[in-house]
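A favour, since you know our structure tokens better than I do. Go ahead and set the record down below.
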Amino acid sequence: MSPQITPIADMAQDLELAERILAPDGERVANTRLDGFVADVDGAGLRALHRDMVILRRIDAEGVALQRQGQLGLWAPCQGQEATQIGTARALAPQDYVFPSYRETGVIYARGAQPGDFVRMWRGEEGAGHDPAALRVAPLQIIIGAQTLHAVGYALGIRHEDADEVAVTYFGDGATSQGDVNEAMIFSSSYQAPVVFVCQNNHWAISEPVSVQSQYPIAGRAPGFGIPSLRVDGNDVLACMAAMRWALAHARSGQGPAYIEAVTYRMGPHTTADDPTRYRSDDELHAWRERDPIARLEAYLRSIGELDDDQLADTQRAADAAARDMRAECLGMVTRPPLAVFDGVYAEPHSGLERQRDEYAAYLASFDGEA
């Protein structure tokens, strides 16, 4: 299942080199590699994927709005990447463990994140916005590519315990230039760790285009490490789900790591601290809007009679409710007492941590009585 290794000349060719099930206009196309992995996804399943993506986009828009209004310190938008995140995350088994970067809002949503989980970290209230044990998702990783090493380490533990789990790690095209990602791939291949690498190639590593970082499809690197790979249209939610089911089956059966490159596009800024108009053209943005992942699935659902205006309106109401709940949680958050920063650092009591806690408590007490 390794991709054809052909230089990428332009954006159109970039898309043609990616496997897909749904064309940009919503037409279903035959794909002998992928169709079997999603043969069970019926109309109800497709509507559920559509609903997920609509809700995710609304949550993402609310995150941007909250940051612009001064309620969040930062937000990393994922508009345009809904199909990649929802398609892959909905393929996971409950016991699988995810190691995300900072843009995987859709992944934590699919894993059961509650309204406050989306904003708690970005508001500066917690180091992790969600409970990693409850969601089986590690805290969002800000250091580019570091989570891939964590995933491989966890996967080695899975192998040692012979557990029925797979570690899954998400990262962007920019991270593939980091040593951490390459080291993680070497180690996972050498020890046949049950881990799936998901590269969301959204074409821009902050302000640097992917064409500067890689003259060939990124998925083509994986076979050089001895890792089978698949390159899919990241705006096709069915292709993303199929690819992840293939990768999970490979890793879960003891065959070692697998690699997915999902070719998608970041419609918004890298983060809310970024201005993408400084480095990319309106024409490029417009071309990718024509390949919108939500509109693509909606067109297909309408063509097969599985989506009407009433259902669409109901989905939009659910999306608006999710955004309202997220906003309410954000505005209602109360900062924890300063000493709570020491809570949960270790599973068991630790003398070194207790000493630090006492020292910090004494430092805080030194300000008592000051105006």
About this structure: The first strand starts at residue 97 and ends at 99.
